[in-house]
Amino acid sequence: MKQMSDYADESIVAESSGRAIPEHLKRRETDKYSLLAQGLFFGGLSYGAMVLYAYGILPLWGLIAANIMFYIRAYSRMHDLCHAFPTNTWAVRYLPTLFYANPVWGGTTAFITTHVDHHKYLGTDRDPWLRYYAGHPLQALAFNMIEPEWNLYNYIKLRGVSRKFAHNLAFDVLFQVVNLMVFQGAYVVHLVIQRTWHGIGIFLFNWYPHRLNWSADAPIGNFNREKEVQRLAAFIRPIFGKPLLEAAYYHNRHHIIGQVHVPSHKYALCSDDGEVTRFTKQWPVKSVQHLAMDPQHAA
Q: Environment class of residue 133 by beta-carbon count within 10 Å: exposed (0-12), middle (13-18) or buried (19+)?
């Protein structure tokens, strides 16, 4: 059997090897369909708001509010789905990002490939997501704003272009072209709103859990932010919901090996203790750690 990643859990190994999934893990199938349904629901609400805006039914402020309320909720479900389940089925390859104006170029295949390496190589120069939390915070914000294109570049650098990936990418391009032709300026406005909110949102989730403070020379680590974020809980929870609030609290738990497959609505059940990567034992680190092997040649 092909060697599985350190980040694959028991049920994923079972699925990949053709073995029966243990009874106590079968409930994860319910989680899979629930996450997919929720992602499509919230993404669909955002897309529906754009359609209403295009036909003059919803004002601009309503479109902005819909994206603030629904887009990050949809994106977080896509993130959880990618971590928790194989992405080789057509439904998980295409559907989770179906209603996003802000593209995930290459779909979930590209996203999870670079994101798993982010977990494996956190704090090192082999992390494809390093630019999102390293250096000056304004520089990191700029890279988060171009995250879809930067992620596409890193995926191709790591894996090249396979036929399956090309199909996903063609689907993404076709989706953008069709929507631009049908909805024209309204879709452009929707895309700009979603890209801006995406960049700001994931900057906070990339920088805040991985830097000790907001300075350019802040040490890199894996920090629990429960006490700090609780001050804003009354504002965050009604808008984004409990799963996203707890993801902000316990993002550090998500990085502990053996827990990365756990969806965000269960982060609170995970432990704060454990190994984060195979390369760094002591956290925080004062600067990015250099690993000799280039990411292009990573196993």
A: buried
